[in-house]
């Protein structure tokens, strides 16, 4: 089993809104739900039955530190944020994210990544799975752990540079995608 290691900014300015897609880290199981860190001041709750086809006997089993993508179903004024992993459309794939790494970034940094097509450029060079969370987290996974970390480092260097696009392109060119 591979683990997912968060890198990047630890400070969070995320305030959940109903419908947001988030990337969360499982903290613990309590009763019929999991407590999930989504980068908010309080942990969110992910009910066991909030997965396609889940029943009490047939639901995902998570361990502390495992990663999920979910949407924010409810944001009560008082109490815990409720998450859900049942896709709202045919194309929405939510649930456990295995392997890979999480990049923590400010929401504006994630917009920069999208606007400058970093993910498209990576996808032209290697097999890639990614998920943008509106909570300032980006999950990426490539064909192997070394490439994933090199790509994550390229993104982080770009985000911390005064010339992010040039830095990203230079870093991406320095990665040997042929190695396995």
TrEMBL record:
Q: Name one GO biological process term.
A: CUT catabolic process
Domain S1 motif, residue spans: 17-86
The family database entries (Gene3D superfamilies) matched by this protein are listed as: K Homology domain, type 1 (3.30.1370.10), Nucleic acid-binding proteins (2.40.50.140)
Q: State whether keyword RNA-binding applies.
A: yes
Alphabetized SUPFAM superfamilies for the sequence: Eukaryotic type KH-domain (KH-domain type I), Nucleic acid-binding proteins
CC annotations in GO: cytoplasmic exosome (RNase complex); nuclear exosome (RNase complex)
Question: InterPro entries this protein is in?
Answer: Exosome_RNA_bind1/RRP40/RRP4, KH_dom_type_1_sf, NA-bd_OB-fold, S1_domain
Which GO-annotated molecular functions does the record name? exonuclease activity; RNA binding
Keyword vocabulary terms for this entry: Exosome, RNA-binding
Task: From the UniProt record, list the coiled-coil ranges.
Answer: none
Any idea what this protein is called? Exosome complex exonuclease rrp40-like protein
Keyword field contains RNA-binding: yes
